[in-house]
């Protein structure tokens, strides 16, 4: 072993240890969200499900993402984090109740708060306040190979819903997809 390698060995071990801890935290955080997050079921709105390079996946739209953009402050910019409060209008139907740059201090127990990123901002004009399009990270989901076409048809027939896990600080993930109320595919914890 050379002297320079012997001197750099502790630094290499430290970097490898830090990287391992970061990866373990990412996995742990995801497992905790999926296993302990509050479950909600949201109706899915049809969008197409195939990517030539990545295989079968479904692009999911939800009533709360398609019902229009959310009202935001004029200081909101693309890339900003935003917290959206959802209220349940009917089984599997959630609508935007409010949006803010900070996690709300209080909300009704039946409502949920999810965190998103501003993807587009529409400035205030004489007829409407500033509005923004939000991405939540739940807009696509990879599914078992060969099931994309069937799922595409089920989505068109409006038979599909997504079970979402919502964490205490607003993080959200797709836990499973259901077709006609029956489990179709579930996100593995590990």
Could you say which overall geometry the principal axes of the C-alpha atoms support? globular
Sheet having the most strands:
5 strands, antiparallel
State the distance separating the first and last CA atoms.
38 Å
User: Percent of residues in helical segments?
Assistant: 10-25%
Poorly predicted regions: none
Number of distinct helices: 3
The overall strand count is 13
Radius of gyration: 20 Å
List the helices and strands and how they pair.
Layout: H1 3-36, E1 38-45, E2 50-51, E3 55-59, E4 61-62, H2 63-66, E5 70-71, E6 81-90, E7 93-100, E8 112-122, E9 131-135, E10 140-142, H3 148-156, E11 160-166, E12 172-179, E13 182-186
Antiparallel strand pairs: 1-4, 1-11, 2-3, 3-10, 5-9, 6-7, 6-8, 8-9, 11-12, 12-13
